[in-house]
Automatic annotation (TrEMBL):
PANTHER family the record matches: 28S RRNA (CYTOSINE-C(5))-METHYLTRANSFERASE, NOP2 YEAST -RELATED NOL1/NOP2/FMU SUN DOMAIN-CONTAINING
UniProt-recorded name of the protein: SAM-dependent MTase RsmB/NOP-type domain-containing protein
GO MF: RNA binding; RNA methyltransferase activity
Sequence intervals crossing the membrane: none
Family: Belongs to the class I-like SAM-binding methyltransferase superfamily. RsmB/NOP family.
GO biological process: rRNA base methylation
Amino acid sequence: AVVVDSCAAPGNKTSHMASLMGNKGTIYVFDHKEDRIEVLQERMEGAGVSCKVARCMDFLRVKTDSQTYRDVEYVMVDPSCSGSGIVSRLDSLTNDDASVSQRRLGQLHKLQAQILRHAFSFPKVKKIVYSTCSINEEENEQVCEEIYEKFKERFKIKKVMKNWPERGRKGYQKSDRYLRASPTATLTNGFFVACFKRRKMKQEVGSMESGMDQEEVSSE
């Protein structure tokens, strides 16, 4: 497989994916801070990961239509977030002065949506996984619903771990397909996961209105 880990450092997800891939194929890993890439490189060497190609650059500047990335089929998006799901930080959330401000959440939401949207621009991408260690809807359901509206003709949201007990917050279009984890419901840190999967393609004759030879149609 050819995979992208868009916000990779320090490398836990990268090493896990390399294990799933049998250390074969290619994982392009990105982080915009040199010191974080150095930590990632050290961890990958320690874990024996040789299938990664690490690059110190902002993922948003990656030219996804270049020859280098023409075969990318899977993208992992685990962007910067508030970290509000980490148990050691949860107590502070009851204090309005210490909690993440709405302005900060708005900034994070904008960045997260930009990174997730960019992942969809790889020409051959089949599956995109979005995750955070946040419990805030602004960083989770709201990001995914916003991006889904832009790409729903070509992608669907696949239900993650069907038997997992905690799903997305109520009131969203795809709530039942998101995965949430929390100290109260699942006795874990707080996490959120969503999986976008490309819809099956069907040849459409005379689809001139779309300006394409092939049109993505729902497989559901």
